[in-house]
Amino acid sequence: MACLNFHMTGDRMSVEKKRIINNDRTVDVNQLVPIKYKWAWHAYLDGCANHWMPTEVSMQRDIEQWKDPAGFTDAERHVVKRTLGFFSTAETLVGNNLVLAVYKCVDNPEARQYLLRQAFEEAIHTHAFQYIVESLSMDEAEMFNMYREVQAIFDKDEFTMGHTDDILRPDFEMKTDKGIQRFVENLVGLYVITEGIFFYSGFVMMLSFGRQNRIPGTCEQIQYILRDESIHMNFGIDLINTIVDENPQIWTPEFQAATTERIKKAVELECAYAKECLPEGVLGLNSEMLREYVQYIGDRRLERLRLTKQYNSENPFPWMSEVIDLKKEKNFFETRVTEYQTGGALEW
Ligand SMILES: [Fe+2]
Ligand SMILES: [Fe+2]
What we know:
It is a single chain. By secondary structure, the chain is mainly α. It starts with about 35 loop residues before the first helix and ends in a 13-residue tail after the last helix. The chain is built from 14 helices and no strands. It has one domain: Ribonucleotide Reductase, subunit A, CATH 1.10.620. The site of one fe (ii) ion (FE2) has 6 residues, from α3, α4 and α10.
């Protein structure tokens, strides 16, 4: 039986032939080299250099602190639970979108190399939240159902999933500008909104505990996740900008305005979520500071997409930039106790 689009040829792959999205399936999808999109290859290398596993992180002190009735106020416990409750399903949701929608549409091999790496990282992140919830003996049903039981979390996830609906249909195609725009909307929803905005109140709130040396194992994992997520988002923005550069006709003033509105809507949903997590101030945080921060990162995302910033807010948490820039060597290898199994140690 003959394979579609696969035949003997003397016509070798070249950088010029490669396209980030290739709707006609006319370019070979299996040749990583010659590498055209170096940003995608470097994201893959950076992701691999940052490899970690949740179970390498000790949860002993977290368990002691969480069990201590005096360890946390009710308001602090509420923040921890709402944050973990959001993340525990959001990571799975991202993984599903990546594998089922993004992978089928982005057929360039170097970009796919990174998507495969990112997909595994999303599985690790889902594992991390399962591991934290289990270690702290939290009510698993409460945590994993939160996205259907807490309005502010439901609203974020519903908004995110709305970006995937069309792409998941079997007949979705990108042969028209409308189709490419629909896919770019999905990428903005995944990489810029979900990973670049919806995760960030949670990062700030959880890492604020870490800055007081509380639930340190949980916060160590959140730091690694934040570092992974910043690579995911940077890859996503490079991907979107490359699609736009190769298909400039889709980047109409109307589409740019709609993208800006989409990001503004996400900022509002994230502020509502922060308010739900922080009905009163804890840890020197309140929902107004979170609003400043979410608007500040909203502006940064808009600028990266070459759109006009909307808020001009100040960053109330400059320490967050230091955490994002944290190099793993700084504190990861020093505390690491687990060696990965080598080939010789495996049983066949
Ligand atoms: Fe993730
Ligand atoms: Fe991610």
